[in-house]
Amino acid sequence: MFIIATSHIQENPLNALIQGSSGSGKTNLLKGIYKIMPEESKKIYSRCSEKMLYNVPKYYFKNKLICFEDVDGLGEEAEYAWRELVSNGELISGVSYKDDKGNIGVKELVVYGPITSLACTTKGAIYADNMSRLFLIAIDESKTQTQRINEYQAKEAAGLINKQAQKQTLKLLQNYVRILQPFQVHNPHATKLKLPEGIRDERRLYRLYLYFIDMITVLHQHQRQQLSSPLERNGKVRLIATKQDCQLAKDLLFECIMLKMDELDGSLRQFFERLKEYVKKQNTNNYEFTQREIREALKVKKTQLSYYLNEL
Q1: Which end of the chain is less enclosed by CB atoms within 10 A, N or C?
Q2: Torsion 259-262-268-273 (CA) sign
Q3: Residues 91-109: pLDDT tens digits?
Q4: CA distance linking residue 133 with residue 87, whole number of Å
């Protein structure tokens, strides 16, 4: 997510949708990434009106990180405007107006991108059209991760967390992002990179995969310029992606790509695997269970369990 958020400096930025059940920590993760980005290059919204994205100054969002704490709260028109900014890098709307003499005319309102967006949702599977344009990030809702979170909160309450060191690290990361420059990237290994067969939205995802590798290369621009000369063609300086960049992208995106192949969304897949594990422990081929039993065994809220079972 840090790599995706930092891509706002590029001509072809990336976008992500964070999916998880209620109370799983989606917004906390979003705000954690948001804090790392420089103040002058980010915007965050709890909600926005239907027309807001159309009516801002034309360069208000250009090369900015835009965060939506809950994309489920966006109206249909606002969601469409967000999708257009992500896909086309600009919004062009025609509006009618009446002059002083009563004559009706038409003028264009233009809002320029490109933008990088991060958004949270509890219903990732519903946004089929949006998901093809985004990387889907599933919150880890395992017991192990819950234990890690609880341990950190306990240390924080006990005063064992060095808050000053955290603030210094945030400033360091913000300044690191500030000195990054946009670059075109030459990837000599691109023709050898393939996605798994049977994946959905393969055309868009493959392009996003290549852009992700480009962004990893851009993050290492200062080291690369010291180690090897950038590729120069037609007077434009370009960085060269390495095998290590491609390998890193594959490792980081493995779960995102698997989610694209899965007919279940991230939190539903995690619940289904936990349910299967619970049933297998009963050591019988024909095991019947009630919703109450599963709620108590897996510690799932009643409304969330109903949603999971209906989806399954």
Answers
A1: C
A2: negative
A3: 998 888 888 888 888 888 8
A4: 7
